[in-house]
Write a structure and sequence with these properties.
Two copies of one chain form a homodimer. The first copy, chain A, has 217 residues and is an alpha/beta fold. Chain A has one domain: Rossmann fold, CATH 3.40.50. In chain A, 38% of the residues lie in helices and 23% in strands. In chain A, strands 3-2-1-4-5-8 form a six-stranded parallel β-sheet, with helices on both faces. In chain A, strands 6-7 form a two-stranded antiparallel ribbon. The first copy, chain A, has a two-stranded parallel ribbon with strand order 9-10. In chain A, α8 links the parallel β9 and β10. β11 of chain A pairs antiparallel with β11 of chain B. Chains A, B: It comes from Nonomuraea spiralis.
Chain lengths: 217, 217
């Protein structure tokens, strides 16, 4: 397993549920966690609510400071944000965990993405970064719940840069209970992002916080 | 759990690996299994190799006879075959388990499908049938292996007809070790089909026969 000891982690959109949940778990694991938001003030509030030494700041500032940057913003603002951070993210591992979903009366469904997936969109914008897709299926509720010691989930990690996917698999395993499992190349990210719609359907039918485990691995 | 006792099951494309593996497990569970193929003779050979009372015949004949019809043909011939069987499949539960995938040097990838997914294509063609999507991720190797007593897999079952998805969940559970888990509406079938490409990548990386389990359900 790749050694990720000492890596600092920024989370763009870290004031949202998914981002805040990840920030909390990485901070608990002892990592320097920088929560990013359009508003530095709201980022600092979110960091304060997490504790464990997490700090907050404007997206550009935390992106420039951190070793690894997780993108957990709503899909609507995804492309524009990344376009504005090309310089700050150059040379870094950027972990996209955005799920492009729409919602209507029948529940969630996958939105079409011109580049194929949010992760491929990130790679198209961030040509100087090492884009990895991961953390799509984490339950924010479970990540935030102090009573949940172990999260019963395999995080599928996708990308075309082996060293980068190995690093992100190791980051995933900072969350107790979680395994990081290589899930394929970036061109196969769409279905992993879109599968979140199915998990939402499962959650509704079974009153669950469903996750996935990969068998025989 | 819905009672599926006594239901006869036809498998179109039952001479292929996935179809034959499913046929074998349903026959072992005591169901009447009818293997379909373009060639009745090849279907009969496949049925003979499975044993447990499985019979073989031309696709149209087994489709007409069975209570439930599983579609396990290659994607290339999928639409044309279903168009030719509209009458035979009318009123029946039709279980589509086709994965529209392409392959190149980098492995498997999802093919675009005009209707959104193979299952939605089936529903568009078979307007008088009750189309359900399921069995995409079963490993033919594990289904065929006499040494594999239990298959460690949740079968995601998708569809818009609750009674039909309940029936197919129960059929999935005829395979020892398997759970049938409702996975959402048919409009969310694409990503379940496409995820087979990721499982192929996982199999290659980990030398595994990977499947999925849904946690907290």
């Amino acid at each position: 397993m790749t050694d990720v000891n000492g890596l600092s982690i920024a989370i763009l959109g870290g004031t949202g549920d998914q981002g805040k949940g990840l920030a909390r778990r990485f901070a608990l694991a002892g990592h320097t966690v920088l929560i990013g938001s359009r508003s530095a003030e709201r980022a600092q509030e979110a960091a304060g609510s997490i504790g464990s030494g997490a700090r907050g700041g404007a997206n550009a500032d935390v992106a420039a400071e951190a070793d690894v940057v997780i993108v957990a913003v709503p899909y609507e603002g995804h492309k524009a944000l990344l376009e504005s951070l090309r310089a700050e993210l150059a040379g870094k591992i950027v972990v996209d965990c955005v799920n492009p979903l729409g919602f209507d009366k029948q529940g969630a469904y996958a939105l079409p993405v011109e580049e194929g997936s949010a992760a491929q969109q990130a790679a198209a914008v961030l040509t100087e970064s090492r884009v990895v897709a991961a953390f799509h299926h984490v339950s924010a509720v479970l990540l935030m719940d102090p009573a949940v010691e172990k999260v019963d989930l395999d995080v599928l990690v996708l990308g075309d840069d082996r060293e980068a996917t190995d690093t992100v698999q190791a980051l995933a395993e900072l969350i107790p209970g979680v395994r990081g499992v290589y899930g394929g190349r970036l061109r196969n990210a769409h279905q992993v992002e879109a599968l979140t719609a199915n998990l939402i359907s499962i959650n509704r039918r079974y009153k669950a916080h469903a996750g996935l485990r990969v068998t025989d691995v």
